[in-house]
Amino acid sequence: MRIHMKTGVKSDGTITANEMYALSDTGAYGGHALTVTGNTGHKSMALYVGDGKYRQSPNIRFYADIVYTNHPPSGAYRGYGVPQGFWAVERHMEKIANDLNLDPIEFRIKNSLREGELQPFSTAWSEGREPRPETIETCGLEECVRQGKAAIGWDQKFGNQTWQMIDEQPHLRKGIGVALVMQGTAIPYLDMGGASIKMNDDGSFNLLVGATDLGTGSDTVLAQMAAEILGVRVEDIIIYSSDTDFTPFDKGAYASSTTYISGGAVIKAAEQAADRIRIRAARMFQNQERDLAFSPDEIRLADCQAISPDGRSIPLKDIALETLHQVDQEQIMGSGSFMSPVAPPPFAAQFAEVTVDVETGEVVVDHLVMAVDSGVIVNPLTASGQIEGGMTQALGYAVCEEMRYDSQGRARETNFKDYHIFQAHEMPELTTIFVETFEPTHPFGIKAVAEIPLDGVAPAVGNAVFNAVGVHIDNNPITPEKVWRELKIIS
Questions:
Q1: Could you give the count of Cα atoms lying within 13 Å of 253 in the half-sphere of its Cβ?
Q2: DSSP codes of every residue in 99-116
Q3: Among 63, 89, 202, 487, which is most buried by a count of CB atoms within 10 Å?
Q4: Measured distance CA(5)–CA(2) in Å, rounded
């Protein structure tokens, strides 16, 4: 993509109008052309709405041209058009703040979207269905900024020329940068997931979901959600996923949707099964002591037991045996599906610390920090893996991964020797911070976490390079040659 930004700003830092034009190369085919480019504006341009009267009715314009070329087909990649948008928006915001001598973080927060406000693009654009207004129910962006600044030492480093210089290595300069980002959670009115669950005679449960675990840990997370409802251990949930011969339907593992959409279906299915367990447990408690009856709603499920209000308990395996082998037999089961009319956005503050060699233009990324509001985090370990994996991918997009073509259209990079991907020993320090909010559109308060790590790394690195050596690299990746050439121009 080639992106052009134009912004109206008052001297006090109030954004009065914001415009983006995107020219998108879809390659030889256009299967994802519209939706990828639409997302480029939908997420990135929605983050900054201005302040005061401009906040009530933001002046935002996004338009695009999409062209076929003789390049390889473009398609879905983690972030789905949004990283391209934030590369332009956050580099542009940095330039504005610098030109107006404004604090770059305060300037961003002053104009950023807030809780209770309309997602400004929701009335004009939707990937899958007719656009409908969406309100931002939860936004932890300011807290993300506060915690991210502390983690990277922003107040001690930004504007500190002593810190930027490295003793006995005058050719090296350190820099620090920031980018604020938002993404989406699933596609409203389009994504749907199904789940079914049955109780076995040993008190374990078979959970069937159409969702596919691509290595994200979704099998574990969905099992956790079922176990939470049913009051059992995760190992008591035997999960079967992906096999379309016998699992329920699911739209697919994309659009940061599995925990939110498929998880919502699992919760519904588990609640149905839990209701039946409580009904049978209430009957068993009454049989134990006929003059004392409990409502099923008074019975809670925990520690693999049904527990009555007076503290008595029945193991779930006894309830399972009762229902399958004794009087009034039944198979305790539950099924559910989940589809959302909204796509609640996660928000994040991403920070980068770099070292730049002014003689060669080499950029070494020393530290990446991401503080993210993804709602309630079901499994912090797998979610941290998502964040760190995403930042690793984004780091390649920021400084080294590039596809170029000669005048005949032949690819320059044809193997992983020429197309460099970061190896483990080359990685910077990574810090992940979760700022939890409770998203009311989901029973567990969940929002997405998978794609948003891609959005802010590249612009944060670009802003850190500017902070270090005073040059703007507008064309990513930020290779040594590009930095070296810009340094030559200003020297």
A1: 14
A2: HTT--HHHHHHHHB--TT
A3: 89
A4: 10
Res. 264: pLDDT tops 90: yes
Task: Name residue 430's beta-bridge partners.
Answer: 368
User: What residue type is assigned to position 441 of the chain?
Assistant: T
476 close to 87: Cβ distance less than 8 angstroms: yes
For residue 477, cis peptide bond before it (omega within 30 degrees of 0):
yes
**Rounded to an integer, what distance in angstroms lies between the CA atom of residue 100 and that of residue 113?**
21
Amino acid, single-letter form, for residue 87? W
**pLDDT tens digit sequence for 170-205:** 999 999 999 999 999 999 888 999 999 999 999 999
Domains of the chain: 2-187+341-490 (3.30.365.10), 192-339 (3.30.365.10)
Q: For residue 290, what are the contacts with CB-CB under 8 A and spacing of at least 6?
A: none
Cα 441 to Cα 295: distance, rounded to the nearest angstrom:
29
Q: Which residues pair with 431 in a beta bridge?
A: 369
* CB distance 49 to 55 below 8 Å: yes
For the sheet with 363-373, list strands across it. 172-182, 347-357, 363-373, 429-434
